[in-house]
Amino acid sequence: MSVLITTEILGENSVLTSVESHLDLTAAWLRSGDGLVGFGEYKKVKISGPDRFKQARTWWNQQLSEFKIQNNVHGSGTGPVLFTSFSFDPQQSSVLLIPEIILAKKGNKSWVTWIGDSRQPDFSKLNNAKSSGQITWEIGSISENKWREQVSFAIKSINEGKLEKVVLARDQIARSNSPINTRSLLQRLEIDYPSTWLFMVDGLVGATPELLVRLSKSLVTSRVLAGTIQKTGNEDRDLALAASLAKSSKDLEEHEYAVRSVADALEPFCSSTNVPESPFVLHLSNVMHLATDVTGVLNDSVKQADIFTLIDQLHPTAAVCGTPTDIARELISNLELMNRERYAAPVGWVDANGDGEVAIALRCGLLSEDKKSMRIFAGCGIVAGSDPEKEFAESQAKLMPMRTALEML
Hints:
13-stranded mixed sheet, Anthranilate synthase, alpha+beta, 10-stranded antiparallel sheet, globular, 27% helix
């Protein structure tokens, strides 16, 4: 028996405020006011293992085979959409989620997709969730001094020639005396970081500046970030810092490793690729990054070269793991003493045509089951020229987006 999926044009609505009162916000993907927001759960499944990307493709194709799709809008992101949030480590749980209702907006066009035989849902009622309680902070998996020691050990390993780069992460825990309002959290992040990709999938919420891969028909795009400097708030001073970042040998080395890992991963699946010779400086509210947009055209002759294939090949990039990948991953496992869960891993969406956008889950937090606590994460790329104190300061800057958003709820 087929399941009816309907997509129709929608009137003027804000994708973060309009929702039937009985449905919870379960998924979101937003950037510069456009995006997709999901409510309720039609189906959700957790998977794990080194073949989790293949499992995701198989499961999504099985769901699509059971759908009867009536799409009156067409285009990328219309019709049924799968939201994905994969784990960094293959043995941890990844989440695949199909919302019951999806509100979407792109430019001047808005649409709604829903599952079932009912008419277009009524969005006249608003589900006004209660405000979050007072936030208090706790030390995460390891102490600050212990993390600095890990960085020093990593630098020593790099200088001994064991590897070229490794990314080390740390976490903090936010606690609230009442459930944390994820919709308000997303709205706060949207105000402060409109140029990032805002996401929410099954309790993982964040605002990442790094796009792992976008597939639109056959065009492949990946935004690579590596190399960071904190902003001061003084425009002239920040311009000078941006210039110093663009010339920093340490940051350029770190960035080169990340770009090379992405370009090498995409090359076998693309008939052509374009890698700019030098990065640009991406300005965010609190930090600046060296950034490079790698593009390519998917080679149709490569069998099963779809978005799941690309995710599988790209993850983990040097931007979140290191170089060489296997040695860096082993050092992370032995040294980091922290379960990353779904942090620093692919998160995004895929539609029925295989188009989609998948980012790396950075600048994010993972909500507890009772919604009264959240683990937030930050990571730093360690290379030969790294300094433990400077890396710690960088990690603090990367924690600020989530810290500030949570404290302002």
